[in-house]
Amino acid sequence: MADTRYLQKKDNTWRVVVEIPKPLRAAAKGKPRFIKSLGTDSLAEANRLKHIHVAEFKRRIKMLERGLADPRAAAIEAAIAFREAFASADNEYLAHGDQESVAADELLQAVHQDAEAILNSQGADAEQLFRSIALGKATLIRDHYPKWLTVCSGTLQTKAQHGAAIERYLTWAGQYTSIQTTDRRKASEYIQHLRDAGLSPKTIQRHLSTLSTLWRWLISSGLTDPASRDNPWREHGVSRKSKRGRRGSPRKGLSDEQLIKLLNGRYRTPRYASVIADLTRLALLHGARLDELCSLKKTDICKRDDGYWFSISEGKTDAAVRQVPVHDLALPILERRLKGDDEYLFPGLVPGGPDKKRSWNVSKAYGRFRRQEDVGVAARFDDFHALRKTFVEMMEGLEVPESTVKLIIGHDRAGEITYGVYSTGQRLNLRKVIEKVAYGAEVMRAIVAQGGGKPNQTHT
Fold it and tell me: Are 327 and 434 in contact (CB under 8 A)?
């Protein structure tokens, strides 16, 4: 079928027609479209001639969009239009002998003319960038990273972080930065820029990890220079520190005084008051993650001969999939929440965030709760995850083996040859371990107070 894109026939003569978007027609003095007669009645000849004019009209439209405020951007868009024209000409005239080279020569002449104009008005850098893009010698990062985001692994939230990291680099380097011009020197300059902006080494390393992973994909996709497969974002040593004086994680377990404030506090909004109270107790008694608890369905609770068990079917890692015995003090919470026809143990939670997690809004509500004046557990790392850290520290204080604690909280044991490889913990009495949970006496009484449980002698 003959290609008539951008072509109209009038009075037996073909002409190029490119529509101007309606919002831009006022800037174009009311003109609805760009038109150029090609002076031929041959469709094949019209297709050969149209590409130069289409590229020029698209350039004018881009300039209208930007109000002439960004001449370099307009020049880049023109270069992209020329690149597309070259590709279209090659495809259409590959089987037409000399016509292909004639079309390419005409386009090339137009590129040289525009490049000379850009050199005079914007300088050598702009001219070189224009030529490299127009002639297909430059591959723009912005054209390819969106595809990588669709195929890379990770949650939607992680992918959003990847996208933000790449956009930050392009904001610094320029939206029309090419893969070919991003070398180790430029990467080093960008790292210094991040340092000057006050980012921590850990945050800088996260940005570099995103860019390095993107580059591995670009290399494997054949989009980088075949002569160089170097990844400019690797081995900058940003996160390397001397072991002497190395600081540990800033996140610490909570003190008994802080736990009592959290357990005795009451969230001011009724919608989340009982949810936060119950989740806080379940986390302290089982060391579970917030999203694991919020995602529990009633079908995930099973009753065995020795009592109730949680069945956590998915989580942050493969090791998160596990079964955990329910502590005696959590039974009143469980039995109360198992009533009714709702699917979830915590019904009515509105999913939020990029990954639509049921814990998204609860996490924000918990943040507001702990910062209430009557609670006052407001430090940066005193968040819900600190309850999990507190559980682990408590278990360590009870001298429970680390490999056993990992089974309960869902940490990977693969690094442990004996228990991690040769055992899956099937013979462990996790019920006996979970019932060892013991914070200070006042904390245990606070857990019971709103949870409704009856502490046994070891808890008082």
Answer: yes
In a domain, 2, yes or no: no
Closest to 357 in 3D by CA, of 373, 342, 346, 367: 346
As a whole number of Å, the end-to-end CA separation of the chain is 86
Helix H or strand E segment including 57: helix 43-65
Q: Rounded to the nearest 5°, which phi and psi values hold at 159? A: -65, -35
Domain assignment present for residue 225? The answer is no
Q: Encoding tokens for residue 173?
A: 């380097």
Helix axes 71-93, 124-134, angle to 10 degrees: 20
Q: Which of 118, 138, 158 is the last residue of a domain?
A: 138
Same domain, 61 and 152: no
The answer to whether residues 262 and 216 belong to one domain is: no
- Structural domain range at position 98: 7-138
Helix (H) or strand (E) holding 432: helix 430-434
pTM above 0.70, yes or no: no
Cα separation, 61 vs 78, whole angstroms: 10
* DSSP secondary structure code for residue 311 in this structure: E
- pLDDT tens-digit map of 106-159: 777 777 877 787 777 777 877 777 777 777 677 888 888 999 999 988 888 889
CA dist., res. 320 & res. 409, Å (int): 7
Q: Which residues neighbour 266 within 8 Å (Cβ) at sequence distance 6 or greater?
A: 273, 277
pLDDT digits (tens, 9 = 90+) for 311-344: 988 766 666 788 899 999 999 999 999 998 899 9
Split into its structural domains, the chain has a count of 3
Residue 96 DSSP one-character state: S
